[in-house]
User: What shape does this take?
Amino acid sequence: MKRLPIMMIVGVSLLAVGCGTPSSGSLGPAPTTTAGASSPASPPASGTASAAASPTGQRPTATPAPAREIGVQAWFSRNGKLFVTQRSVPVTTGVGGGALDQLLTGPSAAENAAGLRSQIPAGTTLRGLRISAGIATADLSSSFESAASPSAMPLRIAQVVYTLTQFPTVTGVRFAIDGQGKTVVGGVPVQSPQTRAMYGGYLPAITVQSPVIGAQVGNPVTVSGTADVFEATVSVRILNSAGHEIARTFTNASCGTGCRGVYSVAIPYSVPRTQPGTIVVFESSAKDGQPVNVQQIPVTLAP
Assistant: This one.
């Protein structure tokens, strides 16, 4: 029987949950698959074994193929605003659920140290996820509604909405709690599908998609994200382990001063050895030139 190419199989699987290029308003490129390259001497794929017998007369056991993963976004919060980071999940037809599971797990230790938080209570679990006609219905455990205040609940909902709508065929999100569809969650009306536009006010003036907190970066490092800043001007500094500035540049987002655009800039730097560092992305105040809307991303700087 003729085999389909691997990439075709992966593409069909991801389409089942709407994975592809991000919808309007999402941050950066779509989640992408990653896998280690196989050499001609690579072992057979999972479920297969070499036809040649071993010296003992027994056939070798099947060797699993390297796991394929996809990078997805998980949206947490920092200083009362949404903050995007990335996770890797296995390439399956349930990649949307995998992204939401990563969100519910919460920030990593490095992210927590950098100020990231989740408004979603610890212990909240995903009971099910259904996607139909562009609308995802997330069935969450009852703890999702616990300890909710009128000010915190919208940001909690926004984390789920932004995480699920990174996939282009998901345009809105409905909520269920313990299997029961909800029209109000924690005092917030959710009778209609919840969209990114409804929670756009929780985006900071500058988001940073790359690099992510805790990443090891090389020279030059590419810094990218979205911004809605004065005259679309985004400034970037690199600080070494002593906190000294070792590089600075600026770039223009594709839109600004009232509209959100994307930006990306490569910045060369020099360090004598691998060391902790910080990528600082900010807007220079139109009033006095001081940094405002600052985002700090702790990283490891490689020479």
